[in-house]
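Please check this one:

***
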Amino acid sequence: MTKSNNVRVGLIQARSDVDPSTNLEAAIVKIRAAAADGANVICLQEVFNTQYPCQTEDHANFELAEPIPGPTTDAIAKIAKELQVVVVVPIFEKRTHGLYHNTAVIIDADGSIAGLYRKMHIPDDPLYYEKFYFTPGDLGFLAFQTKYAKVGVCICWDQWFPETARLTAMKGAELLFYPTAIGWIPGEKDEYGESQYSAWQTMIRSHAIANGLFVGAPNRVGPEGEIEFWGGSFLADPYGKILDQATHDAEQNLIVNCDLSLINTARTHWPFFRDRRIDAYRDLQNRWSDS
């Protein structure tokens, strides 16, 4: 019998204030609460310390960006070291003048930066004008060894592309996080709201199943500008079972026990990696197959 290897995962679902310092202070309080509840690995939501900046194309919003390391990552690294927890910190990164990314920083339990992931897929939809702000990531899909588990991160729009989860899993990720800012735009909730949330959750659960790992998605909650962020943060196990799910209308910390030995069990009984036909996938590198 495979030995149990339990990791407590915390997903933080929060509202966002217009003041970044207020959001940072609130996040630290929530990190402390999650750690007190036994969380070892904690993930914040997409660009957690600001309101979602991409509803308009406004050059003033670039002032929200920070370098890495910088004030926000330094503050959370201090807390991570104090509490001996791993924290995934998604921020608006200023890489240099005129070059910005939507980035997640993985801070290990000793306060060091284990690595960072830059969002690869950048949307451009009504109220989600991210191409104005963010350069697509150039680091590829990665997983980082931390004190408690090997952690992979993709960000929001990445979740709609099966390749992101597959390549991150192939790097050895045991926990895969999708920090997210997703919600309903005006006029859509009544007719499409339930199906939109269901599609989002189904897609992420499918990544857990297809890759045999734990997948968590912390989302924003509440109104910001014209978007009503739908919360509903959740974590799924390697069989796609939802282990816990947050409400749609309030802040909430989810603390979920993840037995990492289940990864071996799932992949042994559902050996998708064994049966992949890697010799037949060359066309995936094409935009479309006209033949």
Observations:
- The chain has a mean pLDDT of 96.
- Helices lie at 20-36, 71-83, 162-170, 189-211, 261-269, 272-275.
- The chain has six helices and 17 strands.
